[in-house]
Amino acid sequence: MSSIHIEAKVGDVAETILLPGDPLRAKHVAETLLEDAFCFNKVRNMFGYTGFYKGKRVSIQGSGMGMGSTAIYVNELINTYKVKNLIRVGTCGAIQEKLNVGQVILAMSASGDSGANMTHFGGLHYAATADFDLLQRAYQKALELKINTLQGSIFSTNTFYDDDPKRWDIWEQHGILGVEMETQILFTLSKRLGAKALSILTVSDNIRTGASASSKDREQSYMDMMKIALELA
Ligand code: HPA
């Protein structure tokens, strides 16, 4: 048996899975950091791999961009493949001036504008939060690896392009560190379907200052983030 968007056999996917937005990142991590990795999904070129990291079985699968795409993979991974721990590994745009590109963030909670997060709750507001066990383990691993992380709240949006320069002011006032497009639905769906979720993000650009990471910096912080996530397998 397989699912609509994933052609793997049940059993091909590990209990812990990393979810980068970009399927080519999944391929790159599988080829450079995993041992004995095999590709379990090529449907829509949304590559998924399972291999071993320090002897522990772990998977990595592209989620695509946005909450619509992410929700499809999260649903199928939990319902069909019985995945237990889902860890987003992605980028965000910082909305606080003081945040440097390359900063790694462990997202404690995700506010957002997803219709799926509002309509399912009768117009009331569900607080989408990370699983505490994964969060505290990631924090410990980061300390051990001497990787500086910031723990805080982020915002998941459905609109990457937005003309309103004041849009993020109220969110910044409420402590939101950065904006991305996947975490809120990952947290909400994982909780609903009985799995644990975490989101680890690196700041790829700063919306306030216009700074963006060089490809070298991006590679370094991206590898830092991957190592924290892989240690959770
Ligand atoms: N907006 C939304 N998602 C993002 C951004 C952004 O500025 N940067 C990285 N992911």
Sheet with the most strands?
Answer: 5 strands, mixed, barrel
Q: Order of strands across the widest beta sheet?
A: 5-9-8-6-10
Low-confidence stretches: none
Please count the helical segments.
Answer: 7
What compounds sit in this structure?
A: hypoxanthine
Q: Approximately what portion of the residues adopt beta-strand conformation?
A: 25-35%
Residue-averaged pLDDT, rounded? Answer: 96
Helix- and strand-based class? alpha/beta
Helix content: 25-40%
Would you mind describing this structure in some detail?
The chain is built from 7 helices and 10 strands. It has helices at 23-33, 66-79, 115-119, 132-144, 169-173, 183-193, 215-230, and strands at 16-19, 35-41, 48-53, 56-61, 85-94, 104-112, 128-129, 149-156, 176-180, 196-206. The chain has a 5-stranded mixed beta barrel, surrounded by 4 helices. The longest helix is centred in the C-terminal third of the chain and has 16 residues, at 215-230. The mean pLDDT is 96. Bound molecules: hypoxanthine. The site of hypoxanthine (HPA) has 11 residues, from strand 5, strand 9 and strand 10. Residues 91-93, 157, 160, 179-181, 204-205, 207 line the site of hypoxanthine (HPA).
Overview features:
about 230 residues, alpha/beta, Rossmann fold, about 30% helix, binds hypoxanthine
Question: Could you write a compact summary of the structure shown?
Answer:
The chain is an alpha/beta fold. It has seven helices and ten strands.
Topology overview:
Blueprint lengths: L15 E4 L3 H11 L1 E7 L6 E6 L2 E6 L4 H14 L5 E10 L9 E9 L2 H5 L8 E2 L2 H13 L4 E8 L12 H5 L2 E5 L2 H11 L2 E11 L8 H16 L3
Parallel strand pairs: 1-4, 1-5, 5-10, 6-8, 8-9
Antiparallel strand pairs: 2-3, 3-4, 5-9, 6-7, 6-10
Helix pairs in contact: 2-6
The structure holds hypoxanthine.
Hypoxanthine binds next to strand 5, strand 9 and strand 10.
